[in-house]
C-alpha cells in the first residue's frame, strides 16, 4: 500500500569515526507545524486502514465490554481506615472510596477521590498517593495527558477537602511523610512548557521537604547531586519513625547506594541527623525492608543473585560505606527461586519468590524462620500491602483473564481469605463480558547460544491445538522486570477472539534473578532478541502457529524488542506491533529521562557500546527493499518517557524501505503518554485497533 511521504533532509553527524545519517531528525521537534502535519497525515492513513478491517467492529465491542467490567482494586490500610479503587464500568478513570472497615467498604464507603473530575475529557489521572503516618491526610499526584510530570495536592481524609498546598514540577517521586507531618518529594527545576510533549533531557532532581501551609518556594533542599542528573533519590521512613533510609542509583540500575538518616522528633518537629553511609558504592542492590531498633533489614543480591534478606547493625561505629566492610547477617537466605518482592507486617516478613515465573508466598519470622506458605491463586502478585506492626497484609493477584482478586492475610494466625464484595454492580444487570476459561502451559525454547527460554502458552479452553493457530507473542526482556501471566486488556481481547497467546520470559528480566537480568543487558542485549526469535521458532516447530499466523508485540523496551527482532528476522512473523518503543539507540540518552536507561543499554558516547548499539538499533538497521511484516507502530504525543520521535522516525524509515506489500502504519494517540492513566475509552479503541490489525494479517477470525 502507499504511505504518506516524509521529507528527508541532509542531516549527518560524525560519531566515533562513522558518518551517521539522520534525515528525519526534524521529527524530534514535537511542537513544529511540520511535525504536527506529519502526525495528522499518518493518523489519517492508519485510521482509513484500521476502520476497514473486517474484525475492527468486533474487537471494538469486545474491548469496550472488557474495560467496562465492574471492578475493584486491592484495598489499602491508611491509618485506621481502608481505601480502595473501584469502577462500575461507566467511568473513564477509577474512583477511590474510603471507609472505617472492610465491611463498610463492601457496603459502598465514601467517595474520597474522583479523578474523573480532574479534567473534562478524562485524560487527567491519579498517578500516585501516599498517606500521612496517621492516615488523616493523603498526598495525591495528578498527571495530565499521561505525562510523567505530576502535581501534588493534599486531601483531608475525614472531610474530603483539599488543603491549600499545591506542589508542581514533580516527577518520579513519592511523598514520604515524616513524623511531624511534613513530607519529602523529588522536585525538578523545570518541567518544560509542553507538560509532557517536551523532549529535552531531564536535569538533576532535588529531594525537598514540604511543611504544610507554607509556599513551595520555601521548601528546603534535603539532598541533591547536581553533578549527577541521572541519580533520582528514593526515601523511605521506618515504621517507628527513627530512620529515614535513602536509596539512590544511576538511572534504572538496580545497584544502588543506601544512606540512613537518624530522625529525632521533639516538640512536634522532626530533625534529620547526619546520614550514615551504609552503602556508598554501586556494587549490588540494597533495598530497605524494615528496622529493628538500630538494625536494618535489607533485600540484597550481594553474593546472592536470586536475592536474600540481611540484617545490618548501625549501633556501632559509623559504617565506611564500603560493601566489603559491612557485617551482614542472613535473615532469609538465598533460595532456589528469585526473591521478587517482600513486605513487613506485624513481627513477620512476607516474601514472594518466582518459581519458574510463578509466585510462591511465604511467611517468615524476623529471625528468618519459615512460618508457612500463603495459599492464594493467581499468576502474578500485583499488590503486597503490609506494614511493620500491623496485623494484616492485603494482597492482590491477577491472571490473564482476571483483573484483581484481593486477599486479606491475618497475622499471626496465618488465616487468609478473599476480600469479596468490593466491586460495584454493573449498571443494568450482568456484565457484557465474561472471562473465558483458559488453558495455561509452560513450554521452553532453546536460544541461539543454547540457553533455555521459558514461556507461557495460553489459549481459550475450547481452542484445540490440533492445527496451527493465529498467535500473539509478547515479550519485554529488560530492566530487571519480570513478565508474568497477569491481566492485560490486550491478552483478554486476543484470547476472547480465539487467538493463542505466548508470553516469553526473556533474559534481561528478573524472573530468574540478577544473573538472568545481566545476561540481557549492555553488550549482551542481543541475547534478548535471540531469545524472542527462539520462542517464535519454537511455536512454529511445535505447530502451534506458522510464520504467516504469528504476531510480535511489546511496549517500551518491548517495543525495541519487536523492532530489532522484526528487522533481524523479517521471516519470523507476519505482524509487528511495537508500542511506545525505544527505537533510536544512538540518541535515546538525549531525551527526557532517556539517560537513565544507560544502565541497561550502555552509553552511545562510549565507543565500544556505540558499536553494540548501532548493530541492533532499529532505526539504523532498516534495509531498503526488504519485505517486512505488516507493522503498526503505536505511540502517544504526550509520552515524555520514551519520546514519540523514536516511533516517528522509525515509521518514516520503514515506510520508505518496505519492499513488500504489507502495510506500515503509525497510530499516534493524542493527550496520552507512556501508558499512565489512559481513559477507559482510549484503552478500548487503541487495543481494538491493535488486535484487529493483528487478526487481519494473521488470519484470525473472532469466534
From TrEMBL:
Signal peptide bounds: none
Keywords: Hydrolase, Protease, Serine protease
Domain Peptidase S9 prolyl oligopeptidase catalytic: 494-699
Domain Peptidase S9A N-terminal per the UniProt entry, residue ranges: 4-418
Protein name in the entry: prolyl oligopeptidase
Gene Ontology terms: biological process: proteolysis
Matching SUPFAM superfamilies: alpha/beta-Hydrolases, Peptidase/esterase 'gauge' domain
Amino acid at each position: 500500500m502507499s504511505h504518506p511521504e516524509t521529507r528527508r533532509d541532509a542531516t549527518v553527524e560524525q560519531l566515533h569515526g562513522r558518518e551517521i545519517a539522520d534525515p528525519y531528525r526534524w521529527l524530534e521537534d514535537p511542537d513544529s507545524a511540520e511535525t504536527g502535519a506529519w502526525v495528522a497525515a499518518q493518523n489519517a492513513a492508519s485510521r482509513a486502514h484500521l476502520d476497514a478491517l473486517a474484525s475492527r467492529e468486533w474487537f471494538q465491542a469486545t474491548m469496550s465490554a472488557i474495560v467496562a467490567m465492574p471492578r475493584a482494586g486491592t484495598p489499602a490500610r491508611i491509618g485506621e481506615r481502608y481505601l480502595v479503587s473501584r469502577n462500575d464500568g461507566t467511568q473513564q478513570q477509577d474512583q477511590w472510596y474510603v471507609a472505617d472497615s472492610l465491611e463498610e467498604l463492601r457496603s459502598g464507603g465514601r467517595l474520597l477521590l474522583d479523578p474523573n473530575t480532574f479534567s473534562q475529557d478524562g485524560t487527567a489521572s491519579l498517578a500516585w498517593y501516599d498517606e500521612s503516618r496517621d492516615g488523616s491526610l493523603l498526598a495525591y499526584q495528578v498527571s495530565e495527558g499521561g505525562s510523567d510530570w505530576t502535581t501534588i495536592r493534599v486531601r483531608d481524609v475525614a472531610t474530603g477537602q483539599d488543603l491549600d498546598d499545591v506542589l508542581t514540577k514533580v516527577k518520579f517521586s513519592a511523598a514520604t511523610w515524616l513524623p511531624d507531618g511534613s513530607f519529602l518529594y523529588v522536585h525538578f527545576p523545570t518541567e518544560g512548557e509542553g507538560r509532557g510533549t517536551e523532549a529535552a533531557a531531564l536535569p538533576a532532581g532535588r529531594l525537598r521537604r514540604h511543611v504544610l501551609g507554607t509556599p513551595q518556594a520555601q521548601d528546603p533542599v534535603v539532598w541533591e547531586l547536581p553533578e549527577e542528573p541521572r541519580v533520582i533519590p528514593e526515601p523511605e521512613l521506618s515504621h517507628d519513625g527513627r530512620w529515614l533510609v535513602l536509596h539512590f542509583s544511576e538511572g534504572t540500575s538496580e545497584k544502588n547506594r543506601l544512606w540512613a538518616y537518624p530522625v529525632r522528633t521533639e516538640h512536634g518537629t522532626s530533625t534529620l541527623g547526619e546520614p550514615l553511609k551504609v552503602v556508598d558504592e554501586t556494587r549490588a542492590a540494597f533495598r530497605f525492608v524494615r528496622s529493628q531498633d538500630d538494625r536494618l533489614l535489607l533485600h540484597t543480591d550481594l553474593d546472592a543473585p536470586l536475592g536474600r534478606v540481611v540484617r545490618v547493625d548501625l549501633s556501632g561505629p559509623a559504617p565506611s560505606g564500603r560493601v566489603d566492610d559491612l557485617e551482614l547477617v542472613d535473615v532469609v537466605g538465598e533460595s532456589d527461586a528469585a526473591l521478587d518482592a517482600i513486605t513487613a507486617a506485624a513481627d513477620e516478613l512476607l516474601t514472594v519468590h518466582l518459581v519458574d515465573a510463578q509466585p510462591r508466598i511465604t511467611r517468615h519470622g524476623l529471625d528468618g524462620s519459615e512460618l508457612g506458605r500463603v495459599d492464594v491463586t493467581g499468576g502474578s502478585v500485583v499488590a503486597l500491602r503490609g506494614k511493620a506492626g500491623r496485623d494484616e497484609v492485603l494482597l492482590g493477584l491477577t491472571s490473564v483473564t482476571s483483573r484483581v482478586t484481593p486477599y486479606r492475610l491475618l497475622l499471626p494466625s496465618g488465616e487468609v481469605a478473599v476480600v469479596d464484595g468490593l466491586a460495584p454492580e454493573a449498571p443494568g444487570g450482568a456484565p457484557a463480558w465474561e472471562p473465558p476459561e483458559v488453558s495455561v502451559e509452560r513450554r521452553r525454547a532453546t536460544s541461539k547460544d543454547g540457553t533455555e527460554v521459558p514461556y507461557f502458552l495460553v489459549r481459550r479452553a475450547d481452542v484445540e491445538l490440533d492445527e496451527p493457530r493465529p498467535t500473539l507473542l509478547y515479550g519485554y526482556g529488560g530492566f530487571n522486570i519480570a513478565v508474568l501471566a497477569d491481566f492485560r486488556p490486550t491478552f483478554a481481547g486476543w484470547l476472547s477472539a480465539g487467538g493463542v497467546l505466548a508470553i516469553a520470559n526473556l533474559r534481561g528480566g528478573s524472573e530468574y534473578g540478577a544473573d538472568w537480568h545481566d545476561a540481557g543487558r549492555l553488550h549482551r542485549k542481543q541475547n534478548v532478541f535471540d531469545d524472542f526469535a527462539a520462542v517464535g521458532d519454537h511455536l512454529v516447530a511445535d505447530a502451534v502457529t506458522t510464520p504467516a499466523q504469528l504476531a510480535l508485540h511489546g511496549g517500551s523496551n518491548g517495543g525495541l524488542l519487536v523492532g530489532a527482532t522484526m528487522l533481524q528476522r523479517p521471516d519470523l512473523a507476519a505482524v509487528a506491533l511495537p508500542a511506545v518503543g525505544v527505537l533510536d539507540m544512538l540518541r535515546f540518552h538525549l531525551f527526557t529521562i532517556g539517560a537513565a536507561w544507560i544502565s541497561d543499554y550502555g552509553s552511545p558516547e562510549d565507543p565500544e557500546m556505540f558499536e553494540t548499539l548501532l548493530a541492533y538499533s532499529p532505526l539504523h538497521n532498516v534495509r531498503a527493499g526488504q519485505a517486512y511484516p505488516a507493522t503498526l507502530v503505536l505511540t502517544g504525543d504526550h509520552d515524555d518517557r520514551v519520546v514519540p520521535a523514536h516511533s516517528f522516525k522509525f515509521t518514516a524509515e520503514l515506510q520508505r524501505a518496505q519492499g513488500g506489500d504489507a502495510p506500515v502504519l503509525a497510530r499516534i494517540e493524542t493527550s496520552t503518554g507512556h501508558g499512565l492513566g489512559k481513559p477507559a475509552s482510549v484503552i478500548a479503541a487503541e487495543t481494538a485497533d491493535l488486535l484487529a490489525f493483528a487478526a487481519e494479517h494473521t488470519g484470525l477470525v473472532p469466534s
